[in-house]
Here is the input.
Amino acid sequence: MKTEWKLFIILLIACIFGVIFVLPYTLTLQGELLQNLPVPLYVFLAAQVIQSMILFAVAIIIGLHLAKKVGLGLPILEGWIEGREVKSYLKSILGISIGLGMLAGILIIGLDYLFSFAGVTINVAQAGQLNPPAWQGFLSSFYGGINEEILLRLFLMTLLVWIFFKIKKTEDGKPTNADMWLAIILAAVIFGIGHLPTLLAITTPSPLLIVRTIVINCVAGIIFGWLYWKKGLESAMISHFSADIVLHVILPLIVVI
Here is the structure.
């Protein structure tokens, strides 16, 4: 079996676990909305898992295929599948991946505070179910680190890089730095937009609240995109997971204390 297909199977299985792990968090956030479903809850959840499997399967296939063409990829998993030594590289990226992930979480908290200081806040009374417990936040962090990075970085950012690569490339046949940064920023903006459904599920947003949601998530998306470019998708995954731990586990525990 080719490396690409082994990668596909590993990533798809990881995505399935990510979808399952995020369900408790999602049910807590959208509990009231799910009470009026036209079908039993278990049918709805099963359909969500199947739909997600199809979506991520397509995203993984396209992402892996195009990543090879533009010099992006998963160096640790690829090396492990091919029998190469990868522990030293994993150790070399852990510090920067976790550190930048924690920085991303802190930046999001800081930016959220600045927006709150300017009067742009979520109506807590309207979104009374906004605070899932830390254990649910921990499980949901796997979805952020795995599924969102596969969708936003492996698929979307890679696709954008490949499109720009087809238009212009360097003399040695690689994507230009400008195109890489444009793809990173566009994917990060879309990453921020992707958080709007959760916002809509918990409150009625104002235009400024929508801007806030996009901006604070875009900052994190730029960090994850840079890591994907420079260190590989595994680095972006570790970083995203670390950021979510700060936001969904450590912060709720501090607030409770």
Summary: The radius of gyration is 19 Å. Residues 123-129 have pLDDT under 50 and may be disordered. Residues 134-167 form the longest helix (34 residues). DSSP finds ten helices and no strands in the chain.
